[in-house]
Amino acid sequence: MDISKRIVLHFPPHVTGQPVVYRLVKDFNLNFNILKASVSPGEEGLLIMELGGTQKNYDKGIQYLASVGVKIQSLSQDVVRDEARCTHCGACVAICPSGAFSLEAKTRKVLFDHNKCVICGLCVKACPPRAMRLYF
Amino acid sequence: MPKTIAEINRKISQGKAVVVTAEEVLGIARDRGIKKTAEEIDVVTTGTFSPMCSSGAFLNTGHSKPRIKLGGGKVFLNDVPVYTGLAAVDVFLGATALPDDDPRNRFRPGEFNYGGGHVIEELVAGKDIKLKATAYGTDCYPRKKLETWINIKDINNAILFNIRNAYQNYEVATNLSDKTLYTYMGILKPALGNANYATSGQLSPLLNDPYYKTIGIGTRIFLGGGIGHVAWHGTQHDPGILRGDNGVPKRPGATLALIGDMKQMRPEWLIGTSMLGYGCTLTIGIGIPIPILSEEILQYTLVSDAEIFAPIVEFSEAHPQGSSDILGEVSYAQLKSGHIEIHGKDVPTASLSSYPKAVEIARTLKRWIEQGEFLLTEAAAPIPGVESGMTSRMLKERPLTE
């Protein structure tokens, strides 16, 4: 069975120099989509990503991460747009730090790219009609 | 050519009127020329969907048994206080009113999740609203307390009234300071992090009739999904401001006071709105038809985003201190490109006004007119123009000395 989960990885300084994501792909056949990364060699690093594969490989991958000293947090929050409430004004577009909102050129409707969302929650309170919801 | 409103109304009644939106007319006139377009097209429809704080609702709840005089007492609708300085059961619910226990900006930025604008939206949506009132009691109105649910379908009157709306152009807001600002123009990131604007540009009603040649007192309009009228010129109406060669104001100019029956309005066009760190307000859909009575009037509706300019105003210092300095001017075409240049820096832009909703309003009004459901009105009186000398001034303060 294939699964896919969003996780937050905290790298201690001694691990940031290692090709950890490469090992996840090569040794455990997992696929990944990096949502946010702040990793500099020699400093504490943060990586938010979606990690997917078979349940067995996923569990092995998580075990591997733990074994090298990476702290794992599941990203159990999610930002969702209430389509009926969104007025497509655009107040969110320049506020989002990860560029998850964009304007469709022809209609000027606001598009929300869930994959680019890093779940920071800034849009939730910045949205005038409160169409963005943060779920736990 | 020229046509009269009566002639256009006859065509509307026969289902023969040619109606296009202020966006569609641009391409038509480009292809067919001014003369032919002015002959063929009867009405151009406009639209805007923006937050406007100067909004509210007059409600008449009907008399209770025994009677109560809400006037001079205290009344809350869903815990939001309403104005009671009126007759026994008339109240005014303002869009920016907040529950007494709302923390406001005690911890900045305040969230302002629920206020008068939200009560208006829920009322229009047909939801029951909790009314709590206390009064001082009189011989003719003995009751001192009233707690009940009310519903828009049961109360006598629910009248939307905007003392100012449909702004003819508006400022672009930005921030030169090193702190994030929470304003009525949205969140302004530090160091020119973004710039927010607030009109629908080429679709905006008064930008298509810059000298108020057809829009006047009494003009029938689309208001909040129902039919309303222009009641008066709005507060801060400022027709004498700087204009371009095309006559279009380059600063916030005219405004309109609008009125309409909330019982026929729809909640998707009256949206309770929260501006982080600023307050609650109401986003309102407005659409105004422009009868194409002459080539001149058509010409005004042909204004496009590239020909409408707005001033860039700095909100950390200039706006709060009441300075009239601006950082420059930009066209709506530039604003809508997503980036403008200020002081040599590339600044991302965002709108507080929904262009897709403005398009939908202009199209809805077009459909109403095409189907013969909406006739045009002759203005009962014009709104003050450039020649009136009317301006919008800052307050002149005088110390309260004995």
Please give a structural write-up.
The complex is a heterodimer of chains A (136) and B (402). Chain A has 136 residues and is of the alpha+beta class. Chain A folds into 2 domains: 2-74, ACT domain (Alpha-Beta Plaits); 78-135, Alpha-Beta Plaits, CATH 3.30.70. Chain A is built from 3 helices and 8 strands; from the N terminus they run βαββαββββαβ. Chain A has helices at residues 20-28, 55-67, 122-126; strands spanning 2-11, 31-38, 45-54, 71-74, 78-81, 101-103, 110-112, 132-135. In chain A, the strands form 3 sheets. A 4-stranded antiparallel beta sheet of chain A has the order 2-3-1-4. Chain A has a two-stranded antiparallel sheet with strand order 5-8. In chain A, a hairpin with a 6-residue loop joins β2 and β3. In chain A, α1 runs antiparallel to α2. Chain B is of the alpha+beta class. Chain B has a domain at 55-159. Helices cover 15% and strands 30% of the residues of chain B. Chain B contains 7 helices and 26 strands. In chain B, the strands form 6 sheets. In chain B, strands 3, 4, 7, 10, 16, 17, 18, 19 and 20 form a 9-stranded antiparallel beta sheet that branches. Chain B has a 6-stranded mixed beta sheet with strand order 23-22-11-14-25-24. A 4-stranded antiparallel beta sheet of chain B has the order 6-5-8-9. The chains are: A alpha+beta (136), B alpha+beta (402). Chains A and B meet through loops of A and β19, β25 and α7 of B.
- Tell me the count of domains of chain A: 2
**Helical amount of chain B:** 10-25%
User: Strands across the major sheet of chain A, in which order?
Assistant: 2-3-1-4
Spatial shape of chain A? elongated
